[in-house]
């Protein structure tokens, strides 16, 4: 092969595309981003992304508290965020690198400030509610017109749930959400941190346990879509994704989501940068990129979750903005509660009771 002169080699190396050595490590919830978001970020910035997923705040928290996770971006829910900020797990955001903060909804960010004073460490990614997804026909076949599809009774009344056991009942593996929902159904304050209230909630969950097929926080999306379970305590957008998958498969499965009349948890998931993130500069670029109105709208239009980006709203499909399961009505909003932040002792109580619920002992 003919050798190029040295000067030509140097000139060629100056114009040839140089493979980017820069990488960003993202750890996000499963089923929580548009198909092309990462590709577009890399095209816009040249930064390659390693993208991992989880489906539990507890799993994320264990990594954040242990440190050295290697992640640059993580997506904790607001109550977990607060506790992890107190533990020093996140670095303050450099807002001079986040011009798209101007796109965020001021009222929602003010709500998040209740967990992160001054919005120093995090911005809203998506928000939603924890309610019930169900298979319309399977429930109707088993419970008829009296099916309490607008109520937590559908999953917390043992007589009702017993009739659904054969078609499959699932619950999130999320103790800090299931116990308060059960407490609320019993007429107790879902934000209570009283041990007795936790125990009452756990007792109710134990009473329906024999009829629950599994506790898992992501499997229910495909199971609802395929008709492999008929009721799931689940997160709003995930149930809508199940509905969407069933519609696309044209498999005759009709999935519906309800915010029960007794009320439900409203939560915010946030983007934050671990204190020991290897590439905080790229992390800021990613957060700012996601806060672009079109990028956020694309994510909402794909994952069916509400977002905290006011500028994106005109770009979100009307089918989504007009759905009361995604953007609750004022009446439903009045019954929503915000996540409670548990201290270490309360957290231990909840974890111990949840283990009992899951194992039955
Ligand atoms: N598939 C994405 C699910 C996101 C759920 N976030 C957790 C909310 C916890 N309250």
Commentary on this structure:
It is a single chain. With 361 residues, this protein is α/β, with parallel strands linked by helices. It folds into 2 domains: 6-128 and 268-327, 3-Layer(aba) Sandwich (D-Maltodextrin-Binding Protein, domain 2); 129-265 and 339-359, 3-Layer(aba) Sandwich (D-Maltodextrin-Binding Protein, domain 2), CATH 3.40.190.10. It has 17 helices and 11 strands. It has helices at residues 6-15, 37-45, 57-66, 78-86, 106-113, 136-143, 153-156, 158-162, 175-185, 195-208, 219-226, 236-249, 280-290, 293-303, 318-321, 330-333, 344-359; strands at residues 23-29, 48-54, 73-74, 122-135, 169-171, 214-215, 231-235, 255-258, 264-272, 306-307, 336-338. α2 links the parallel β1 and β2 (48-54). α9 (175-185) packs across α10 (195-208), α10 packs parallel to α17 and α11 packs parallel to α12 (236-249). The longest helix has 16 residues, at 344-359. The N and C termini lie far apart (74 Å). The relative contact order is 0.18. Mean pLDDT is 94; it is low at 1-19.
Topology:
Blueprint: H1 6-15, E1 23-29, H2 37-45, E2 48-54, H3 57-66, E3 73-74, H4 78-86, H5 106-113, E4 122-135, H6 136-143, H7 153-156, H8 158-162, E5 169-171, H9 175-185, H10 195-208, E6 214-215, H11 219-226, E7 231-235, H12 236-249, E8 255-258, E9 264-272, H13 280-290, H14 293-303, E10 306-307, H15 318-321, H16 330-333, E11 336-338, H17 344-359
Parallel strand pairs: 1-2, 1-3, 5-6, 5-7, 9-11
Antiparallel strand pairs: 4-7, 4-8, 4-9, 4-10
Bound molecules: spermidine.
